Amino acid sequence: MSALRSLLLLLLSLCPGPGPGLGSEAKVTRSCIETRQVLGARGYSLSLLPPALISGEHLRICPQEYTCCSSEIEQRLTWDTEATFRGLVEENGSFLVHTLASRHRKFDEIFREMLLSSEHSLALLFHRSFGHLYSQHAPVFSGLFSRLRDYYERSGEGLDDALVDFWAQLLERLFPLLHPQYIFSPDYLFCLTRLASSADDPLKPFGDIPRRLYLQITRALVAARAFIQGLETGRDVVSEALKVPMSEGCKRAVMRLTGCPLCRGVPSLPPCRGFCFNVANGCLRNQGLDPDWEAYLDALLLLAEKLQGSFSFELAARSIGVKISEALMYLQDNSVAVSAQVFQQCGNPERILARARRAPPPQEEVGRFWTPPAAGAAAAAPAGAGAEEERPTTTASTSMNRLVWELRERLGRARGFWAGLPTTVCGDPRMAADISQEAAPCWTGAGRGRYLSPVVGTSPTEQLDNPEMEKEDSGSDLQTRRRRLQLRAATTRMKVAALGRDLELEDWDEDASGSGEGQHYADDWMAGAAAVAPPARLPRPPRRDVSGGRGGGVLVRHNQGRSRTGGTSVGFHTQPILILFLSALALLGPR
């Protein structure tokens, strides 16, 4: 009998047995040595780790079979696996946050630097050239820069108000220089500016140039502000989406995926890829920003191309001086006709008595035509000379071109990020088996084997059939919808800005006055479209705070108290405003 028993045992050892089934690794491996080594290296106390497999009836997440985990170890593993999963998501999305944040900072610095440099250079050159004469008129220009900055930083009024007030104040300062023999009271100057800004604008002291300047500078500023807003919104939305707290069902699913193999004593057994996909798709369904993400990237890149090309802010800034010089020449050439209209509508001003006349101005201030070095040709060029269409080649434009190129290259890698995030997470060796080992046995959530459950997508309907997620975790949350709405609003704002329109300004005007401001310059800048003259808007006459003295009144708009939101930084060159003021004082000064 003993010989027969030995023969039977030998035959049984040679016969292949059934494949590994549920819990078979627990019956074969009656040791927790590997688990103790892995968790000990992570800083776990070995006193909390049983030396051998124990009954798993106390487990709340992992299968309640033989286990290497106490209740404390299972809870701590749940926290650690959650932190690992969240860290993977944030790590893979960190380049998005960094790209949007760094581009926002760089573009903002360029716009602010251009504006600040323009203002400082203007003040320096004007003060050196005209001294006290410039100091008397400096508030006109500093006020323009201040209001441009306010518009950029989302706290100021619309650009139309800033430019209308600028032209009105400029006319108020220049008109008395054309007629030094008269005294112009504040009331008379108020009549002058009201006449120039009336609905049909019969006076047109600067011709059609203020409208053309308004069109060009507005499209660039509106685009720059919407672009900065878009980068800022994207940065905040992505940063929030990557840090969304995980639901309890997601925490348990991630624990089953990467923590339970340790409790079963098989830490080297990788989770099945299908298992990982179902867990990742379920946990990340409320963190993705699709389908709004791709539309956001398209709008951002479209506006970046506009700022680099037809909506170039630097090109618009360089055109300011040319257009203002043309406006001043127009006023000088048509001063007789303009003055006749003003005298007819506002009456004849009081003449200065001979004995009260001031001393004649110095010879150098009489009839002098100022030509700035290296810029005089551009300043004096006629409207059709094409000087203003020359592409800028300054350091700022080079930086802008480089930044746009870098943004295009980096955002190209961001396409499909949210749709591919589960695949990226499951590509980490801590989360799933390598794709080359897909045919090998893996961790199924219950033991060693093949994962047979179907892999479901991330849509709400598909998530209802996710075998790894609880039903209460299948719906979308309010925070996700809020983030998508924020991204959609930024996308719409940028698309409208790419047409040269300020969406926020249009919304304000529709609610407040129905005048439709902000949209009447769009058609001029649509690619491939013929220039269309904007419909006439209804200007609001300026209001004056009278401070007394000849030409001493300060213009204040009737709508000055209203607030318009928006924001971004702007930058201008020195040369444009230099041409404006120096031409004004030199060409139109008293003779």
Automatic annotation (TrEMBL):
Gene Ontology BP annotations: cell migration; regulation of protein localization to membrane; regulation of signal transduction; smoothened signaling pathway
Keyword Lipoprotein tagged: yes
InterPro entries in UniProt: Glypican, Glypican_CS
GO cellular component assignments: cell surface; extracellular region; plasma membrane; side of membrane; synapse
Signal peptide: 1-23
Compositional bias ranges of the Low complexity kind: 377-386
Membrane topology, record value: Lipid-anchor; GPI-anchor
Domain of life: Eukaryota
Keyword terms, alphabetized: Cell membrane, Glycoprotein, GPI-anchor, Heparan sulfate, Lipoprotein, Membrane, Proteoglycan, Signal
Subcellular location: Cell membrane
Region (Disordered): 377-398, 453-481, 534-569
Protein family per UniProt: Belongs to the glypican family.
General function of this protein: Cell surface proteoglycan.
Protein name, entry field: Glypican-2
